[in-house]
Here is the input.
Amino acid sequence: MLSIPKMCGALLYLFFSEVHAQSLQDEKTISSPVSAKNISAFELYNAKGKKISYAQFLKSLKAKIKAHSETSTVLLFGELHDNPIVHWLQIQMSSDLYRSNNNMVLGAEMFETNQQMALDEYLNPSDSNQAAEKIMSPMGAMTGDDPAYTALKKSIKLWPNYKTDYAPLLNFAKENGLPFIATNIPRKYANLVYRGDFQSLDTLPLDQKKLFPNLPISYDSSLRCYKEIFMATGGHGGQNLPKSQAIKDATMAWKIWSNLPQPTDGIPKVSSESSSKPPNPLSKKNKATATFLGDGTPEPSTQKKSHTVGGGIFIHYNGTYHSDHYESISWYLRKEEEARNAVIVCKEIPKPIHIITIASRLQDAVNPLEKENINIADFVIVIPTNMTRTY
Here is the structure.
């Protein structure tokens, strides 16, 4: 029989031998190659489903805009509202396009037409608010409070992901003196359409009717975007649910068209119908060089001309369903174009606006582009289904 000291020694030997063996195994595991699939946060595709790099995507966008330099380009960026990758690409693309063409207007579904004044005040603060921005309380400095953001939040209802996803876009416009247009119809009016068709809007006072396009509203129930909504509800409620979607599309198209940046020789201009205030000449970077007359039309600037490659660009951020399959907003933009051209008294009808669409899709595997997602837009962003969400 082993003595107690010898038994303890044997146990210690076994213990340390085990530890040493495990250490060698761990070393082997770490040093040996691990078999695992590559993962990607996103992939970009053209309309036909060919995978492209971000550099190719940007080059193609610039080429399309330059090729239509005699007209305005509307870029409909279809997003997944809670997707961080899509929002990151929005600000990245917008700033990259701006470097080659600052004849630009931004707009978004996430802001309603009755919120334009609050947006304008945020972009171009009045004297009192400018002073408030400069004077921050010690508590505000400690907590990182922004007086301009606080004022905006008090004025309008912001989306829950505003700070992470939409504030960067609005601040980009602010820093560069760009108009930012609230394009969506106030939801209470969309609800009116859902409950009582388009004609329910005709009962509203004149001042409220200024927040959406003139009645009657065109509508085509055979369009895929509205037919799918109708079929998804089993026809419950008739056409009123898809019509409540259509009034949003119509309003967004109307506001986009009313604020198109016109093709220029480098001086940013926006339509005389714009409800957005002129660019702030005191903004931090102030790349915009236009001044405005009393009626809202631009006046040539005495400053150096801006960099412009191609015609003016309106970048619109909207839920991808509002621009997929070249319908919805695109369809109403063409309707706006037809209506406006019909009343133009001139020998030559203006060149049609140029529309580019970007769609966003979730797929379990980001490569390749699934068959049903081919030809849904000029470009498609594919993100993994298990990507984290912003809210």
The chain has one domain: 43-384. Residues 43-384 form a domain with the Rossmann fold fold (CATH 3.40.50.11550).
